[in-house]
Amino acid sequence: MNCDLESLIYILEDSVKFSVIDSTLTYGNKNHHLSYTETRILELLIKNSGSVVSKIQLIEYSWTGRVVAETSLAKSISNIRKVFRECEFHDDNVIQTIPRLGYRLNLRSNVYEEKMDETSNLIFLEETKAISDSMAPRAMIKYADSYLGINFKKIISYLVCFILLSASVTFLYETIHSSHSNFIDPDYEKISINIENKEYIVIKNKNSNIPSRITNLISLAPSGTLVFYKMKSNVISLSYRIDNHAISFTFHADGLDKAKCVIKGAIEKEKHVCVL
């Protein structure tokens, strides 16, 4: 009995092969590898070829629930365009930026199901046009179970981060935003600190100090901001109260450079929840 593994294959403009399960674009004899998120972005654009796909849709589909800045999406789009140029698609409007709306793929594609057995057959599924005649969404085709299994550990990791983040947000609202009480957990204290001539109120564990690397992150917020800081098992939680808005972040201690960039952008754009 043969065991067949089916995967989706897209042929773009009859010249470039895109394999979803392998995350590769093949032109001639050369393979170009994409990241997981780049693969998801390109797949969604192909499924909606000729139609505008919003930035929110692309982020939710490609980062599977994580909250990321639009700059991350723009960088991934730039990387995909670079690969397309290496495949002789030199016009960046192959992936067209639609201001304030999103992106549109302007390529014709054929969709196949590839059976990886001794015959390695390609089964034709459908053809998509470069400019769609209909705005109706195409049916989403399920990945092979083996492809989903690869990302199981990532899903667990994200789930743990969201649990920690939820605990941080809950604590912040219970201790800071209550209009009926100024209660602070006995293990925590509220202190005032001055950073670069800006005043901050910080709620932290009584037994912990605030290292300089954290004060650098606190100073990204405007003067007068109320900040909650907690570090446990090398995971840092930072929550800011800015103009009656709570913005919360959870990240590993070894990711401070990335955290600084994301926190700065999120505060400027009022993104309320981020997991790094």
UniProtKB/TrEMBL annotation:
Residues 7-107 bind DNA. Residues 7-107 form the OmpR/PhoB-type domain. SMART domains: Trans_reg_C. Gene3D superfamilies: Winged helix-like DNA-binding domain superfamily/Winged helix DNA-binding domain (1.10.10.10). It comes from Vibrio cholerae. Transmembrane segments: none annotated. InterPro entries: OmpR/PhoB-type_DNA-bd, Sig_transdc_resp-reg_C-effctor, WH-like_DNA-bd_sf. The keyword DNA-binding applies. It holds the Pfam family Trans_reg_C. One of its GO terms (molecular function) is DNA binding. It comes from the Bacteria. This is OmpR/PhoB-type domain-containing protein. Keywords: DNA-binding. CDD domains: trans_reg_C.
